[in-house]
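Journal club prep, notes for RB
We'll compare a predicted complex against what the paper describes. Inputs for the nicotinamide-adenine-dinucleotide case:
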Amino acid sequence: MSKRPLRLGMVGGGQGAYIGNIHRLASRLDGNWTLVAGAFDVDPDRGREFAINEGLDPARSYGTFQDLIAGESAREDRVDAVAICTPNFTHYPIAKALIEAGFDVICEKPLTATLEDAVALETLSRESGRFVGVTYTYSGYPMVHEARVRVGRGEIGDIRTVQVEYPLEWMATAIEQKGNAQAAWRTDPKKNGRGGSIGDIGTHAYHLAGFVTGLTLEKLAADLATFVPGRALDDNAHVLMRYEGGARGLLWSSQVALGNSNGVRLRVFGATGSFQWFQEQPNELIYAPLDGRVQTIKRGADDLSEDAKVRSRTPPGHPEGYLEAFANLYCGFAEAIRARLAGREPTAIGRNIPLAYDGLKGVAFVEAVVDSAESDTPRWIKPIAV
Ligand code: NAD
């Protein structure tokens, strides 16, 4: 199989949208993908105009995702996969239609807005054999993979406690009432799902903690708060977690944490050491062993794992960050799809990538958090699908 660039389609991510542009930049970075088709906007005319301005063939500049499916299905050079960059409640109908038409899918998190949809989508992906990659951004960072490998090798011993947080500040006031489109759908339960901050960013934190530690959540108890008056969903979440085997966890997600632009932080404490990773210094992993000699492990160092090396491009001291991490997900998705087409096992970059089941676990986590928090005394709840 030649290494021709895979043909990418996109739904959502049009004029003024946030994550669609990150997908476009990240998918281009390594030459694995070429964007050739799109239905970029909920407004068909605006979407077609956006596509043409992006340089797409007018014949592949579609008004709706249904038109994209019909148009691409009729072509010999049809898209290999379609990225879904729309608000949460639309992920399921769009993904379902794409899979049923035989397309692979790259879907934004959370996988769906409801647990019912997440179960249905994961089942559809499994039974059809279609690829569904989920863009859990933080699992694209090389030093997150390095932490995962080292935890797996036993470098910090049995895990005792996991502290993971995702604080943001941009929704500290009622911007959804002042015309901010991104905040408007994120605070509408019908469009976002039942979990506000926990669904939007807590899902990232939950995936990151599970990805690095390999631990399975046994049960959780949660306390949700809505600090901004008039808001329908939580904007701050505290979740206590008990993992199988006895480890404990604490997860904090917040959209009202002033001073935090994107403060994702993971700390894993074991019996013989700890690892810390902070997204705003993504090239460094802090290792604190029992003997007190704290070390900074740097991206690009010679003795890193293969999993970290294949996700790095530049030598140490030349920082890589968010776009490269996102691009690593796109490299992984391309490799997984190419491997399937060629009937072989994927290489390292196509392994340990977030798939539909990870997306389902994320939605199950959010549902359990909201269920737990709905009683005055938080209840311990076992999420399904963990
Ligand atoms: P946004 O509001 O900025 O953009 C949504 C876009 O989807 C708009 O262009 C809108 O016109 C379009 N759209 C809506 N319905 C459509 C439809 N039926 N057909 C075609 N286009 C349609 O939203 P956003 O902040 O970019 O978030 C989009 C998704 O990405 C959400 O699921 C969100 O949770 C996720 N997200 C993920 C990350 C990450 O780190 N992975 C970061 C931000 C957002």
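Talking point for the session: The mean pLDDT is 97.
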